[in-house]
Amino acid sequence: MSLIEKIQETKSFLEAKGLTAPEFGLILGSGLGELADEVENAIVIDYADIPNWGQSTVVGHAGKLVYGDLAGKKVLALQGRFHYYEGNPMEVVTFPVRVMKALGCHSIIVTNAAGGIGYGPGTLMMINDHINMIGTNPLIGENLDEFGPRFPDMSDAYSKDYRAKAKEIADSIGVKVEEGVYLGVSGPTYETPAEIRAYQTMGASAVGMSTVPEVIVAVHSGMKVLGISAITNYAAGFQSSLNHEEVVEVTTRIKEDFKGLVKAILAGL
Ligand code: HPA
């Protein structure tokens, strides 16, 4: 089956389950999936039941698609995403974004846990741009002309308009947000201190193992993107050692602020 046929099949399956006319796709990163539990009039579907869909394997990622109302908007939330380091082809990593677009989402809000370069644990950072150091690009291969052009413009990947509105909203509810460049790597190793020094020179403020593929595919199809990183640790070399437990612990600590912020943004966009 071609990619287009797979997208069509999955779209039809989800529409038959009642997932019609979503506005915003939400991609919830490590430890941030709880927000989907607040969706009202929810239709919840296990990833295992969805045709052509990948499977989540990471601790802290639930593996459910949640559709319904959040902050007055129709959302389609991914509780758990697919990572390249799990061995998923890029087509699988970005498939949910294709389906979100096909179902009618005009925007995605993408979130992640990330290491901070300059910023410390507990910081919420609005992504204003990214650097792709994953070593591949999800659009390599035949172009899906129905979705977008062969050579997509990435000049305003993280909508300037959304960033300005989100910053205003964050200020109005008293949640502090920083802003910076997210550098995406493949993982699963954390970076070496030398790599982090290189990334710092390149202009990165945060580093993580996700987000860049989904954003590229969203921008390709003309969706507007808002990205938020939860900084869970200082990147390698700026603290003595790194581990996934700390990532989960810090996201748990800041998730109330995070959830409040995303809901307020959704309400205001
Ligand atoms: N590096 C890469 N990915 C991450 C990090 C990090 O330091 N923290 C959370 N996700």
Automatic annotation (TrEMBL):
Catalytic reactions on record: a purine 2'-deoxy-D-ribonucleoside + phosphate = a purine nucleobase + 2-deoxy-alpha-D-ribose 1-phosphate
List the keywords (alphabetical). Glycosyltransferase, Phosphoprotein, Transferase
InterPro entries cross-referenced by the UniProt entry: Nucleoside_phosphorylase_d (IPR000845), Nucleoside_phosphorylase_sf (IPR035994), Pur_Nuc_Pase_Ino/Guo-sp (IPR011270), Purine_phosphorylase (IPR011268), Purine_phosphorylase-2_CS (IPR018099)
Q: Which residues form the Nucleoside phosphorylase domain?
A: 24-267
Q: According to the lineage, what is the superkingdom? A: Bacteria
The biological processes this protein is annotated with in GO are:
nucleoside metabolic process
Give me the residues that bind phosphate, please.
S30, H61, R81, F82, H83, A113, S210
A GO molecular function annotation here is: purine-nucleoside phosphorylase activity
Where along this sequence does the record place binding of a purine D-ribonucleoside?
A: E191, N233
Q: Which PROSITE patterns match?
A: PNP_MTAP_2
One GO CC term on file: cytoplasm
Q: Does the keyword Repressor apply?
A: no
Q: What is its EC number?
A: 2.4.2.1
Gene3D superfamilies this protein is in?
A: Nucleoside phosphorylase domain (3.40.50.1580)
Q: In which pathway does it act?
A: Purine metabolism; purine nucleoside salvage
What NCBIfam families is this protein classified in?
PNPH, PNPH-PUNA-XAPA, PRK08202.1
User: Which family is annotated?
Assistant: Belongs to the PNP/MTAP phosphorylase family.
Described by its record, this protein's role is as follows: The purine nucleoside phosphorylases catalyze the phosphorolytic breakdown of the N-glycosidic bond in the beta-(deoxy)ribonucleoside molecules, with the formation of the corresponding free purine bases and pentose-1-phosphate. Cleaves guanosine, inosine, 2'-deoxyguanosine and 2'-deoxyinosine.
**Assembly and oligomerization:** Homotrimer.
**Name listed for the protein in its UniProt record:** Purine nucleoside phosphorylase
